[in-house]
């Protein structure tokens, strides 16, 4: 090829690449595009890893659906996950059966990784209408160790319900309460751990930012999403009690979660679990009451602050938590770091604590429960709507 034709080809490739970037739903610069490509490559490299979750749960579920007639397999209680996630396994085992099994199973969560990053971008864009901060927030999510470990290496789906929670906060930020509750309903339909955001929603109810008569919408979303499994023949009682059965499955105070129960022997399980549940409920109501009585307005910054407290507090103080249950805290701590740059170390501590949880080394998990507890205390202590400052800030809005 001549030099002229080389230049023509280069210009053509460049123009097509720029056109692709312009077609995306948010501005994509060159470095962001490179970051996305690199994140995709990392995921493709890590896909072949067969975790214990994949070997003992995901792959058998796929095989069961494939060998029991596809959709009709949903009438059996072969999995302890809710139907919405099993629908994806159904798609993987039927429509995507031509793909490698492990890739088809992991594809959904890997794709949602980027949607979660996009919603994070949108929330950070509310703080920084101009500049590169939202782009950096997007990259921080797709390169987060927890995100990569969870969806790509382990093949887990915590990003799905967490994305629903991020969407809930985004819609609350732009005052679309109905969409916020629909998003929460979708999150709850995938994992009960979506309830980690419940303290914030209780505050929104008490502050009349969300109206009580909107709450049935959450139940409606859950019911609609389990209907296909019911149509397939699975009893409605089983579908409604899935979370109750999950709660009674493991008899451990903590399953590699870096929380305060790392320091309590499992021999005290029957005594500590009810105490922990009562303590959590009482603290939630105290937390909501303090914020409710505050005269300070729940601004966008305070909304992010309160959301971060909710998703960090719940898995730290609740018993029976697993290593993956700090996943929402991982994402919200990143958003928190962009909203409050002086506290970036909070995101670092949360990310490191979760990462060692994924590694499964008991001594490190136990040790990291200490700085994580301090971080939770710090985030709570520096929330001015909980600990009001002596003097109101200039221009502060008072209810």
Automatic annotation (TrEMBL):
<keyword id="KW-0472">Membrane</keyword>
<feature type="transmembrane region" description="Helical">
    <location>
        <begin position="355"/>
        <end position="380"/>
    </location>
</feature>
<feature type="transmembrane region" description="Helical">
    <location>
        <begin position="211"/>
        <end position="231"/>
    </location>
</feature>
<keyword id="KW-0812">Transmembrane</keyword>
<feature type="transmembrane region" description="Helical">
    <location>
        <begin position="136"/>
        <end position="154"/>
    </location>
</feature>
<feature type="transmembrane region" description="Helical">
    <location>
        <begin position="268"/>
        <end position="291"/>
    </location>
</feature>
<feature type="transmembrane region" description="Helical">
    <location>
        <begin position="325"/>
        <end position="343"/>
    </location>
</feature>
<feature type="transmembrane region" description="Helical">
    <location>
        <begin position="20"/>
        <end position="45"/>
    </location>
</feature>
<keyword id="KW-1133">Transmembrane helix</keyword>
<feature type="transmembrane region" description="Helical">
    <location>
        <begin position="102"/>
        <end position="124"/>
    </location>
</feature>
<protein>
    <recommendedName>
        <fullName>Mannosyltransferase related to Gpi18</fullName>
    </recommendedName>
</protein>
